[in-house]
Amino acid sequence: DAMVIQNPRYQVTQFGKPVTLSCSQTLNHNVMYWYQQKSSQAPKLLFHYYDKDFNNEADTPDNFQSRRPNTSFCFLDIRSPGLGDAAMYLCATSRDHDNEQFFGPGTRLTVL
Amino acid sequence: GNSVTQMEGPVTLSEEAFLTINCTYTATGYPSLFWYVQYPGEGLQLLLKATKADDKGSNKGFEATYRKETTSFHLEKGSVQVSDSAVYFCALSDQSYGQNFVFGPGTRLSVLP
Fold this sequence. Notes:
The structure holds 2 protein chains of 2 kinds.
Chain A: E1 4-7, E2 10-13, E3 19-25, E4 31-37, E5 44-50, E6 53-56, E7 64-67, E8 73-78, E9 87-94, E10 102-103, E11 107-111
Parallel strand pairs in A: 2-11
Antiparallel strand pairs in A: 1-3, 3-8, 4-5, 4-9, 5-6, 7-8, 9-10, 9-11
Chain B: E1 3-6, E2 11-14, E3 19-21, E4 23-26, E5 32-38, E6 44-50, E7 56-59, E8 62-65, E9 75-77, E10 86-94, E11 99-103, E12 107-112
Parallel strand pairs in B: 2-12
Antiparallel strand pairs in B: 1-4, 3-9, 5-6, 5-10, 7-8, 8-9, 10-11, 10-12
């Protein structure tokens, strides 16, 4: 089945220790998104790629970076995680900007 | 800018009760409208969508009608089950505004046996 896969499902890191979350898709969609979701809140868009074009949200901290080496994969790098970065990180894809988004299961990040 | 407002939760219902979760939106263009559901510990799943006025989206017994005159997209289900317990997000996509998805704050539904 075509799908969006996120690894790992659970990630524990230490304060200030860089961490990378990964997302892959078999849908061959043009757009890939990274969201941060904290408890009992709506997902907050961090950035997205349309093909290779990177689009950063204005209020996304510099601590968060992303890479998309090819159509199928996209990575979220958190350079120096703080306690406030503990959250669920959701990857999503869409065929184009105005199509529905397909979400992965998420990676829950814990910062100790 | 564009925005989505949902009724505040949590909503607690007994099994087989009728469900309505209100959603209203503000948009400058002609958005597509969506309902997503999130079960505990999981990502969001598309529940239904409507892309133009008067369209009705439906799936798994849930329905929502795109009402342009009232800028609403209320979610309804005639008879809820315990397995419907989840958080429901209303969302819009308005490409004419050059904007990606805008999610509402979510409404938590708990269905009791």
